[in-house]
Each structure stands twice: as structure tokens, then as C-alpha cells.
Amino acid sequence: CNWPGGHRRWRLYIFKQGDVAETLHIHRQSFFLFGRDRRVADIATDHHSCSSQHAVLQYRRIYLENEFGEKRAVVRPYIIDLGSTNGTLLNGDKIEPQRYYQLKETDVLQFGFSSREYVLLHEDSAKNQRGSS
Known about the structure:
Blueprint: E1 10-16, E2 19-25, E3 31-35, E4 43-44, E5 55-65, E6 71-81, E7 88-90, E8 93-94, E9 100-102, E10 108-111, E11 117-122, H1 125-131
Parallel strand pairs: 3-4
Antiparallel strand pairs: 1-2, 1-11, 3-5, 5-6, 6-9, 7-8, 7-10, 10-11
């Protein structure tokens, strides 16, 4: 499973006022720092309610077990709020600081009181959506 991002080529689609403002390819590093401090942040969150070092999206290797007891390693994206002043929202719910939350396809992140939405998808998401209808 091609570490750091695993076999999936994850992307973050940043929506501003309902339109895609930017698409970030986030499978090339093992983590991405979100924050207002552009000197250290991988992904700048320029809203005044965001902290200098707000949150981190990090890939973590976990082991899944099938019904036969066989384990296999997979890589999944996680988000952790770094104790930011105004918090991080995952699908509209504020997450606890200093705790990892596993992210899934179509999850939506928001930072502080910014209205920007960060939607997590991967290169096969469109195929998955068409296949499910």
C-alpha cells in the first residue's frame, strides 16, 4: 500500500460560497498542517478565527481483520485538532482537541468560524458515486 497516502490518491476540494475554490492533492505527504501561519502551514486557513497551527490531517497505518482472522495493513486519513481556539468541525460536529478522528470519503471539514468547506474525496469517488445509483 503506497505509503504515505496508501493506494488511494486523496484530494481535498475547498468550497467557498458553494463553488470549488481549490483542489489539493493530498496523497504525496504523510501529514498536512492547517493553519494561519503561512511559514509553517501546508494548507493556509486565512480566516481570522483560525489558529496559527490549527489542525493536522495525517495518514496512519491500521490493520483490518477479515472474517477468517487474516490481518492486512491499510492507510487511512485522520484529522486531529491541535487545541485550536475556535475548534474544528467534522461533518458539522465539533471534534475534541488532541484526538484523532478517522476520515472517510465525502467527509467535510471546517476550521474555526470560516465558512470554507474542505471535502475529502479520492480519484475514484466519481466512479463510486455513479456505481451506487
